[in-house]
Amino acid sequence: MTDSFAPFLFDQDDPASRGEAHGEQWRAEIRELAEIRAALALKKGSFTDRAQLDAVARLHLPLLDNFSAPLSAELRGIARGADVAPEAVVILNHYTDLRDVPPSVLEGTCPEDPVAEDTFRALNLNADDPGGCTAVYLPGRDAPVLGQTWDMHGTAEPFVRAIRIKPRSGDDEFVCFTLTGCLGMTGVSARGLAVTINNLTSTDGQVGVVWPALVRAMLACASAREARDLLLRTRLSSGHHYMIADGREFYGVETSGKLKVVTQTGARAAHLHTNHCFDPVLRRHEAVPKASTSFRRMELATTLYVQQRPQDARALWTMLSSHDGYPRSVCSHIDDAGGDPSASKTCGRMIVDLTRGEVLVGRGCGQTEPFTVVKLDRWRGANVP
C-alpha cells in the first residue's frame, strides 16, 4: 500500500500556536466545512435560524475553557488561523451533538418532561439520516486491534485528514483521524491508548463539552481505565458510544446527553457496535431515525466477523470495507445510490494495532482507496500480558 494519506504533522508545543497553524494550513477548507455543517445543523436540528445556532454554539465555549484550557486554546487558535468566529469552529467540531441540543438552552432550560422528549423523538425518527459508523475491537491472534469506519454526510469526504500531534518538547504523540478544523475524531496515543466513537441520537441533549476535545483529552490519559473515568465524569451534549482500549483493558461506554453506561468490558473478547443503544435505560433517551441502517449494519458486521474471524489490523480493514448489502453495507455508499451528496457514506476508516503502534488509515471506500500505514515514533504502548 502507498502513503496516500500520510498524517499532517503539528509539532508546536503551545496549544494556541498549534491551533493557529491548523487554521492557517486549511483556512479555505475550514471556512467551507463550517458553512456546510451549519447548514446541515439548521436542516436537521430544531434551530430557527443561523443566529440561534451560533448562540447555542457559543454556550459551549465556557464549558470547554473549564474542561481543558489547552484544548480550548487550540480550538480558539484554529478559529484565529482560519479567520472565523470560535462558534463556527464549535459547529464544525460538535455538529452531530448540536443537532440534538434544543434551543431552549438559551433560556436555561432543556427538555426534561416526556412531552418535550416525545416531540424531539418524533422529529428525529422522521429525519433522513440513515448512516453511521461501525466500530470493532478484536483481541487478535497476537495483538489487540481497535478500529472503525467513519460514516458522515458525503460532503465531508473532501475534508477528511489524518494528523500527527507531536510536540517538540516532551514525549507525547497522537495520531488522529479528523476533519479540517476538528481537534480529532478518533485516534491513538504513544502510550498505546486508542478511542473510537459512534454517534447516538439522544433526546436529552444539553450544553456540554465539545466532543472532539473530550476524545483528545481521553487520548492524553495514562490508561483505558483513566480515560473511561474521565468520560464518566464529563458533562456531555448528546449521545455517543465510545470504545476505549490500551492493550490490557477494554471498555465500551454508551451515553446520552445526560446518562452514561458501561455496556461492554473485557479485552479478551471481540466487541462490535453501530448506532443504537444496547442498554435498556438509554434506549428510552435515544431516537434512532426510521431510515437508519444501524441494526442492519450490526447484523452484517456480526455475520462478517463470524465468517472471516479477522485476527489483525489488515483483516479488520478488509471486514470494514465489505460491500455485502450494498449500498447499505458496512462500507456505506448510501449517497451514491440516492443522489443526495449530503447523505451518509463511509468517508474513511482508522484501525490501530495496540501492540505495535501501527495505524492503518485512509479516506473514502476501503475497496478502492489504499490505506496508509502510520507508525507512532514515540510508541511506548504495553504488550498484552
Determine the CATH superfamily of the largest domain: Penicillin V Acylase, Chain A
| Class inferred from helices and paired strands | alpha+beta
Helix content: 25-40%
Side-by-side strand order of the widest sheet: 1-4-5-6-7-8-9-10
pLDDT < 50 stretches: 113-117, 121-126
Main sheet properties: 8 strands, mixed
CATH topology of the largest domain: Penicillin V Acylase, Chain A
Q: State which percent range the strand residues make up.
A: 15-25%
Order of helices and strands: EHHHHHHHEEEEEEHHEEEEHHHHEEE
Tell me the span between the first and last alpha carbons.
Answer: 31 Å
Tell me the total number of β-strands: 14
Q: What is the overall shape?
A: globular
Nearest-integer average pLDDT: 92
Q: Number of folding domains?
A: 2
**Name of the CATH architecture of the largest domain:** 4-Layer Sandwich
How many separate helices?
A: 13
Keywords:
14 strands, 8-stranded mixed beta sheet, globular, Penicillin V Acylase, Chain A, 6-stranded antiparallel beta sheet, 13 helices, 2 domains, 385 residues, 35% helix, alpha+beta
Q: Can you tell me about this structure?
A:
With 385 residues, this protein is α+β, with helices and mostly antiparallel strands. The protein has two domains: 13-125, no CATH class; 135-375, 4-Layer Sandwich (Penicillin V Acylase, Chain A), CATH 3.60.60.10. The chain is 35% helix and 21% strand. β4 (160-165) and β5 form a beta hairpin. The longest helix has 18 residues, at 27-44. Residues 113-117 and 121-126 have low confidence and may be disordered.
